[in-house]
Task: inverse folding
């Protein structure tokens, strides 16, 4: 098989450069590293830092919204906060966290010695801090940070934007380049470096969902790069792509943006599906129900994600035929998503369940992501969407799928694999405390926002009418509870790195798959020769 | 087909009635936590669709969460549960693919009907052009041969209320100086556009939300069935004061509307006369202060100190103290590439002359020259 040949090639390569020693010492280990585990760690630490930064922006938003009136910040700075919160969380926290998990786990799950393109791997991480340094530095500039929302609709983000928009555009270009390189690497790894005998339909679901996600990234990140380049030309070179006064079309911006933006939503949730599909079988001590249908459902969701973008634009005045098409297509997404939820629950049904921290986060994912799915279905109904659109109902919806969805899955994954990474068990009691504080906090934070939206509160406003006061106050209290609980997570991770009960190779009683056949902590180099597949590879 | 349709509509109406009963039981709370039923046929159909899908989701939720909770309680290892060995069933996968599809089709049918109705703006009895500006709405009545009635609707809540220096009024942030006025039981068509960035015009009680986009004219319509005051907000992020451009619509009886409309026409005629009247600097400055507070203060601030760098100071600036022609040009035509809008089309000649004169002779400036409404009229007609 061809992948065996490639593995052989790698082995010769390794001998030439004598890579079998441990990591280099000092800062150069991290700067020059081509090791997938080091790069995975870099991504994860970076993501954690951005999660805390983006979270602090969110707390400024919730602080201002604690009471009606303007108390702490001015409207323009408030808009900078909503914009930076969205950008940092999407591009800085969630996406790099999944790439970090992919780097750490995919080679170990498919029995590969490293990522297929290790030097590019180094580069795709190390350009990210520069992108975010550039983006964050706009906060210190006289004109202020971007203030036009993370969706940066033209012409607010072009003709009417602060001068710092150019830094924003360049930062987006770099983030896009990083994502494209990362996904090329993941595709090359998965398609070429699988251990002999690991056919596609034997791959763990995390690998499957990432393979599909990587293709989505390659398809849509260039579209994002295109749209910001058109903005750049409008701003600096006198074109009028989005300027109506020059014959341009502001709605074109939204079509191009959401052609990127909707698949982007699935980029942030498909790897989460993969993680949850690894964790639930382990702690239910039962094989994943409907592996094949999980793969087909994920592929269907990915396909549908390309033909639903204009459901973000129901109020822009599309023709009736357009509204109907995008309404029906969007409703269809409920079908494969439902299949996934039913499969997870059937996996737990008649299992033998225990409730370790990763499982708690995974169960909360199933419950709360389904909540977000319900409101997503409601939003798909175009006439009802005219009332929901751009209100707090939408804010509640996408935070339910992104925070207890994507973020909880990352937390679940981190707790699940932390003993494998560090060789130590984390403090289970503190982990459970972190879970319950997060679970309670997140619901106090986002559930009342459904009511606010239905009652008529628009999103992205720094001040609101008096009838919205009660639920805003409750929501803000939840935000602070959830926000500060995350410091506990940082503490738990550091404590786990510094010591704790020695973890076995299997770590969990019913763990399954190649990553659990190597010692804990995983050695610097794993699977330098292709492994024998255990009997049960995937769930 | 016939009996099936009957059963379907019976189920549908049962589903639709149920929320009404629920809703009336919780009448007091509804306003704070649920979508308003509203005052138009469309808003009621929208509310019904919303309740139908909510209840469908709730029922699915009961089943899904029920099985989940059952599994978590019954099959825990600590209770001695042993894991079963099954892990696939093509039959069951097909079943739980088909059932959701049927539910979705059942949802899509009424939704399509309501959507088609919403899109039928034909046979309107009155057309109103709504233009979004940073950060106010302009309403222009298009269906009259006489003097055009057109005015701006600005936030009426004071800065002191916003900044916590004054008690907040009942309709805090949802009150305007001049509301849109329309007659009851009349099909009114709204044509929406914008002068700068994208805005979105929303009145929840009408179930009308439509984007106002520069270069586009969007269409929406309403037949309001009850007189009253209805409030909404801009729902598309449009810059600094996005949260401060409410929509207020007064719905009145036809006779009252006609009276109001005639008054507005007279006012428009009076302004045309004012343009040719003799103006002194004092009267222009006095008039200009009001205009400044409404249109300029949000950016250039109360005393003209501005919010640099985005919004330059007017006090002591080269523009307000330099040649008056340049000053007039910027106010009329805006400053391209900056947030400064073109006010030539937004304000009448009297207000334009007044605010320019005010900016040169107040806010710490004392240039001593002035421009009259008649001169502004002259400049604007020459440039056309």
Result:
């Amino acid at each position: 098989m061809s992948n065996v040949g490639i593995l052989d090639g790698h082995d010769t390569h390794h001998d030439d450069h004598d890579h079998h020693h441990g990591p280099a010492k000092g800062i150069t280990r991290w700067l020059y590293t081509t090791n997938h585990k080091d790069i995975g760690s870099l991504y994860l630490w970076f993501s954690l830092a951005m999660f805390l930064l983006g979270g602090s922006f969110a707390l400024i938003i919730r602080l201002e919204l604690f009471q009606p009136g303007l108390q702490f910040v001015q409207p323009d700075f408030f808009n900078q906060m909503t914009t930076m919160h969205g950008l940092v969380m999407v591009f800085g926290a969630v996406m790099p966290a999944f790439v970090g998990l992919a780097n750490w786990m995919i080679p170990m799950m498919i029995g590969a010695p490293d990522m297929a393109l290790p030097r590019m791997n180094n580069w795709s991480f190390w350009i990210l801090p520069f992108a975010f340094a550039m983006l964050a530095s706009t906060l210190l500039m006289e004109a202020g940070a971007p203030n036009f929302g993370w969706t940066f609709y033209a012409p607010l983000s072009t003709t009417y934007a602060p001068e710092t928009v150019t830094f924003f555009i360049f930062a987006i270009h770099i983030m896009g380049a990083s994502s494209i390189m990362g996904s090329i690497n993941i595709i090359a790894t998965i398609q070429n470096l699988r251990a002999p005998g690991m056919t596609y339909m034997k791959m763990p679901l995390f690998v499957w969902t990432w393979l599909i996600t990587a293709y989505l990234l390659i398809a849509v990140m260039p579209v994002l790069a295109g749209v910001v380049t058109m903005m750049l030309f409008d701003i600096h070179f006198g074109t009028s792509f989005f300027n109506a006064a020059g014959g341009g079309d502001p709605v074109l911006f939204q079509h191009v943006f959401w052609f990127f933006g909707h698949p982007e939503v699935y980029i942030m949730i498909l790897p989460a599906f993969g993680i949850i599909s690894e964790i639930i079988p382990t702690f239910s001590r039962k094989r994943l129900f409907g592996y094949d249908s999980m793969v087909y459902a994920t592929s269907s969701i990915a396909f549908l994600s390309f033909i639903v973008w204009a459901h973000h634009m129901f109020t822009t005045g599309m023709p009736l035929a357009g509204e109907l098409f995008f309404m029906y297509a969007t409703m269809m997404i409920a079908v494969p998503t439902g299949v996934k939820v039913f499969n997870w629950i059937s996996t737990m049904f008649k299992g033998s369940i225990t409730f370790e921290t990763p499982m708690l986060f995974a169960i909360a994912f199933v419950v709360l992501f389904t909540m977000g799915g319900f409101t997503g279905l409601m939003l798909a109904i175009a006439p009802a969407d005219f009332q929901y659109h751009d209100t707090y109902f939408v804010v509640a919806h996408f935070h339910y799928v992104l925070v207890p969805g994507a973020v909880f899955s990352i937390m679940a994954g981190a707790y699940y694999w932390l003993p494998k990474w560090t060789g130590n068990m984390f403090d289970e009691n503190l982990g459970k405390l972190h879970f319950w504080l997060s679970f309670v906090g997140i619901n106090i934070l986002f559930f009342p926002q459904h009511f606010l939206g239905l009652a008529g509160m628009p999103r992205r406003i720094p001040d609101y009418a008096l009838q919205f006061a009660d639920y805003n106050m409750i929501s803000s209290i939840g935000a602070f509870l959830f926000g500060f609980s995350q410091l506990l997570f940082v503490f738990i991770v550091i404590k786990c790195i510094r010591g704790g009960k020695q973890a076995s190779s299997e770590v969990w009683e019913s763990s399954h798959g190649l990553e659990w056949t190597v010692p804990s902590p995983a050695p610097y180099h794993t699977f330098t020769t292709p492994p024998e597949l255990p009997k049960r590879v995937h769930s | 087909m016939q009996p099936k349709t009957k059963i379907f509509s019976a189920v549908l109406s049962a589903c639709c009635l149920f929320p009404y009963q629920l809703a009336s039981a919780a009448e007091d709370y509804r306003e704070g936590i649920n979508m308003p039923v509203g005052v138009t046929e469309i808003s009621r159909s929208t509310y019904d669709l919303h309740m139908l899908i909510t209840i469908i989701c709730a029922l699915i939720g009961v089943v899904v969460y029920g099985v989940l909770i059952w599994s978590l309680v019954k099959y825990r290892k600590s209770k001695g549960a042993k894991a079963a060995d099954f892990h696939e069933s093509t039959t069951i996968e097909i079943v739980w693919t088909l059932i959701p599809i049927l539910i979705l089709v059942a949802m899509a049918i009424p939704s399509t009907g309501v959507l088609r109705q919403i899109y039928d703006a034909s046979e309107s009895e009155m057309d109103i052009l709504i233009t979004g500006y940073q950060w106010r709405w302009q309403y222009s009545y298009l269906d009259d041969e006489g003097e055009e009635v057109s005015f701006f609707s600005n936030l009426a809540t004071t800065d002191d209320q916003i900044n916590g220096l004054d008690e907040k009024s009942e309709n805090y942030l949802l009150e305007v100086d001049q509301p849109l006025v329309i007659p009851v039981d009349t099909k009114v068509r709204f044509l929406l556009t914008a002068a700068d960035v994208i805005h979105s015009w929303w009145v929840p009680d009408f179930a009308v939300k439509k984007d106002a986009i520069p270069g586009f004219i969007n269409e929406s319509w309403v037949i309001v069935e009850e007189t009253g005051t209805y409030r909404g907000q801009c729902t598309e992020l449009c810059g600094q004061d996005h949260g401060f451009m409410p929509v207020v619509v007064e719905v009145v009886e036809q006779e009252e509307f006609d009276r109001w409309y005639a008054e507005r026409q007279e006012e428009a005629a009076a302004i045309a006369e004012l343009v040719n009247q003799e103006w002194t600097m004092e009267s222009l400055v006095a008039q200009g202060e009001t205009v400044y507070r409404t249109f300029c203060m949000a950016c250039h601030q109360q005393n003209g100190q501005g919010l640099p760098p985005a919004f330059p100071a007017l006090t002591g600036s080269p523009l307000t103290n330099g040649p008056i022609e340049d000053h007039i040009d910027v106010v009329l035509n805006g400053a391209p590439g900056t947030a400064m809008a073109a006010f030539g089309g937004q304000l009448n000649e009297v207000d334009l002359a007044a605010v320019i004169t005010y900016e040169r002779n107040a806010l710490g400036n004392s240039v001593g020259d002035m421009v009259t409404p008649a001169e502004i009229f002259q400049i604007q007609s020459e440039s056309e």
In short: DSSP finds 18 helices and no strands in chain A. Chain A touches chain B through 97 residues (CB under 8 Å). Chain A has one domain: 36-517.
